[in-house]
Amino acid sequence: MMHNTVRSPLLPQRAREESGSHLAGYRNQQGFTLIEILIALFIMTILSTILIQVLHHVIAMQSDLGKKSEQLHEIQMTVFRLSHDFPQIVNQPYQSDAHTKSEAAFIGEPTAMAFTRTTHLGATHSTTQAFLERNRYRINNHTLWCTTTPIQNNETIAPYERLLLSGIVEGHFEYLDQEGRVYRTWPPQKQSLPRAVRVSFVLSKEGSFSQLYVIHAALSEAARGLTYVP
């Protein structure tokens, strides 16, 4: 007796599904293919390159801001020092010792100047004692230096030097007389102190600035009609 076998049309589809599920399971067991790994590495390389460039840019910006902040602090200290020195200038010639020729109270050149000024030191808690100083400013190797020589009892003390400003691209001093004429050097004939000094700098980080400092002693001399003291 023969039996007829009925074939269901769903069997091939189930076979395909079961085969697909076996392949998926096999793929999950095997992990990513080589092409997928290479693509992932390529993407990570691009992202790493972009991140490194961004970090370099941020570090460069921070370094530049640090340099600008440092130069701004130097500018503030320089302006403070000059503002403190010029009002104290006196018409007092300077002589380092008895064997050298005395210098004029104020000597000015395009990139250097020297002058005598008063300074007050505390003698006691209630009184102060005035002394003299010889200050020399000079622009050298893109920097501004100040050398101070204290003078007590007509004797000079060992000078000390400090760096005031760096990063100078160009700098110079100009000297104005009582009539407002500008000189590149000082003194001209029959004038001991300039009326004012213009200090100008071009800086590498903070652009340029120019300050005019009035010398009070020169105004007093002009009012009294005093002339040059050699």
What does this structure look like?
With 230 residues, the protein is α+β, with helices and mostly antiparallel strands. It has a domain at 75-224. It contains 3 helices and 10 strands, in the order ααββββββββββα. It has helices spanning 10-30, 34-85, 216-224, and strands at 106-109, 112-122, 128-140, 143-152, 155-156, 160-165, 168-176, 182-183, 196-203, 207-214. The strands form 2 sheets. Strands 1, 2, 3, 4, 5 and 6 form a 6-stranded antiparallel sheet that branches. A 4-stranded antiparallel sheet has the order 8-7-9-10, with helices on one face. A hairpin with a 2-residue loop joins β4 (143-152) and β5 (155-156).
Concise overview:
The protein is α+β, with helices and mostly antiparallel strands.
Which class do the helix and strand fractions yield? alpha+beta
- Percent of residues in beta strands: 25-35%
* First-residue to last-residue Cα separation: 149 Å
| Helix content bin | 25-40%
Count of runs of 4 or more consecutive helical residues: 3
Order of helices and strands: HHEEEEEEEEEEH
Indicate the overall shape: elongated
- Strand count, sense and closure of the main sheet? 6 strands, antiparallel
**E-strand count:** 10
Rounded to the nearest angstrom, the radius of gyration is: 40 Å
Average of per-residue pLDDT values: 80
Stretches with pLDDT under 50, minimum 5 residues: 123-127, 226-230
